[in-house]
Write a structure and sequence with these properties.
InterPro entries: CheY-like_superfamily, NreC/VraR/RcsB-like_REC, Sig_transdc_resp-reg_C-effctor, Sig_transdc_resp-reg_receiver, Tscrpt_reg_LuxR_C, WalR-like. By secondary structure, the chain is α/β, with parallel strands linked by helices. The chain has ten helices and six strands, in the order βαβαβαβαβαβααααα.
Amino acid sequence: MRKKVLLVDDHPAMLWALKNMLAQQVHFEIIGEAVDGDGCLEFVRENETDLIILDIDMPKVDGFDVIRRLKIISPDSRILVVSSLEAKVYGSRVRSIGGHGFINKTASSDIILAACLAVSQGYTFFHVNNSSKIFSSDDQIISSFSPREFQVIKYLADGHPNSAISEFLHISTKTVSTYKTRVYKKIGVSNIAELITFCRTNRITDA
């Protein structure tokens, strides 16, 4: 099922870039846009939203206050902050009030997309600018996964065999095996039980 996404930013160029990037992905459906905190809150009150991607440096309502209100209005919505503000300073604050991810606008499109996919699937993603410094060792591992690797990991952790995954993703079983070997190496596990433990710990799967 495609994740319903709300984009919130007062910079038209950033809104366009995010919209253009996510529109090319089968995982997301952009259902709305807002240019300030008031617009964001009003939209979420009236529409079921899976993922909210917002800047915290916006007019009218302070971005941190928006996050606090969103946690009350729509507690099941996932919140990813994409901002030009310093992640080392503001990322931990976003996390402390219930945000699920923070990434700088200067990050590559691949990293931003990985963050969107990660947060939408139920776990956190806090990336410090374009460096490899993240807030925990598991986050560092998770941030290295490509969108396709995220998909393979989730299917594996949910108990699907390679043959089924190849059908789901329209790739060969050999390619699935390659991804499987790659993610095992990144995580540092040697069997499916250890992979499932990692995924449960990091909320990658509900299995």
